[in-house]
Write a structure and sequence with these properties.
The chain is built from 10 helices and 18 strands. The chain is α/β, with parallel strands linked by helices and 388 residues long. It folds into 2 domains: 131 residues; 250 residues, Alpha-Beta Barrel (TIM Barrel). The protein has a 6-stranded antiparallel β-sheet, with no helix packed on it. Helix 8 crosses helix 9. Bound molecules: flavin mononucleotide. The site of flavin mononucleotide (FMN) has 16 residues, from helix 9.
Length: 388
């Protein structure tokens, strides 16, 4: 964190007018500008540097005192506990020094002797600082966990940390708390692993691992696929161990099996091509899990995989999703048009959803869940064959 602030000095050091140091003239207090920098590197612990100086030259010892301009410099150990998403505290302790910087001796000054050497007893000061902070969370094995947090993370954003099923470590709980994450999302990707060069193909204990995370984490856990959808049978097992939300991440959009087959060669490439479209389409997965009663049981469904427009999103909400997600089109919009392109694309999705809600005559998007629906074609066939 880089900050700028003002320090109130209580004005506690003294000087005297005789060699016996009649300590009668207090050091001038007041407001001092300061600049500080903190680096937090482990569980909200770090170190900081502070430089504080008197804005204008002052008179040490009052109106007849010595012209001076003190500068205080200190190095501290810092602990930054989080009070709320936007507010934190800076607790610091360390070592520092002051250069008092006298500018010319004035013989008539009422402040002649400095009690041996200039010193300050102003050890405590209050500091109100505005700063910007940027944090990154690193997994215990030093793998970046793709978490960036700062002012960009507004308070009305539901903030998820995403990891693979083998990636959880107990240290995540504190790390997530430190960045204000709302929930953990675990992604499943067996088809991707089977096409991935050197992929992990031992899936034993996956459900137990998720159950352990749910028990230990102390905050909601969501599970998602990565392009193959989540079936009712898998959803039932996830809910039974306490998973609170499921992103079906179904077929019809980005296929990570296909992505891997581009990278792979030989048997893995062939497997990737064979499984290119493997999975349950997003709409069918949402409809199945909704018919399974998950939303009614308080399990939130997220529809991702092939969502491209606000109308797609409206259809997903009508099928029972609480929210929708999209990846590839947003990345493409940013790739082609930078940040402005990405924002324009997302605005288009939001406007499309609003238009669909308005045209359906509903007050709000969440009412789509109970709106009358007509389901035809391939989706109707999938829904009719929902496995029980
Ligand atoms: C470039 C890219 C990277 C992704 N990385 C992850 C990831 O790390 N974890 C994850 O759960 N899903 C990941 N996904 C999958 C998306 O979260 C989402 O499930 C799916 O891509 C949505 O489909 P869409 O791309 O068709 O919109 C990624 C998708 C893309 C396109």
């Amino acid at each position: 964190m880089l900050g700028f602030g003002a320090v109130m000095s209580p004005g506690a050091a003294a000087c005297g007018t005789t060699s016996s140091a009649n300590l009668t003239c207090p050091e001038k207090g007041g407001i001092y500008p300061n600049i500080s920098a903190d680096v937090i590197f482990h569980r909200r612990l770090g170190f900081g540097f502070d430089a504080v100086w008197r804005g204008g030259q002052g008179l040490f010892g009052g109106p007849a005192g010595q012209p001076y301009r003190p500068i205080l410099i200190d190095f501290n150990g810092v602990y930054q506990p989080r009070i709320s998403k936007k507010v934190g505290a800076d607790l610091m302790a360390g070592i520092g020094w002051q250069t008092t910087r006298f500018y010319g001796y004035t013989p008539t000054s009422g402040c002649v002797y400095f009690a041996g050497a200039p010193y300050s007893t102003a050890l405590l000061y209050g500091d109100v600082t505005y700063g910007r902070s940027f944090e990154s969370m690193t997994a215990p094995d030093n793998k970046p966990a793709a978490v960036a947090h700062g002012e960009a993370c507004a308070t009305n954003v539901f903030y998820l940390v995403n990891i693979g099923n083998a990636g959880y470590d107990a240290a995540y709980n504190a790390a997530m708390a430190s960045v204000g994450a709302n929930a953990l999302c675990i992604h499943l990707n067996p088809a991707q692993e089977m096409a991935q060069p050197g992929g992990d193909r031992d899936f034993r204990g996956a459900l137990d691992a998720i159950a352990r995370v749910v028990a230990e984490l102390g905050r909601p856990v969501m599970v998602k696929e990565t392009g193959c959808g989540i079936s009712p049978a898998v959803a039932r097992q996830l809910v039974a161990v306490g998973v609170r939300a499921i992103d079906v991440s179904g077929g019809g959009g980005t296929s990570w099996t296909a992505v891997e087959s581009h990278r792979a060669s030989g048997a893995e490439k062939a497997r990737g091509q064979e499984l290119w479209d493997w999975g349950i389409p997003t709409a069918a997965a949402v409809a199945w899990l909704s018919a399974e009663g998950l939303p009614a049981a308080g399990v939130d469904l997220v529809a991702s995989g092939g969502i491209r427009t606000g109308l797609d999103l409206a259809r997903a909400l009508a099928l029972g999703a609480r929210a929708g997600g999209l990846a590839q089109p947003a990345l493409r919009a940013v790739q082609e048009g930078g940040r402005a392109g990405g924002e324009a694309y997302l605005q288009q999705v939001i406007d499309g959803l609003r238009a669909a809600v308005l045209l359906t005559g509903l007050p709000k998007a969440s009412d789509l869940a109970t709106a009358p629906r007509v389901i035809t074609g391939e989706l109707a066939v999938w829904i009719a064959q929902r496995p029980r």
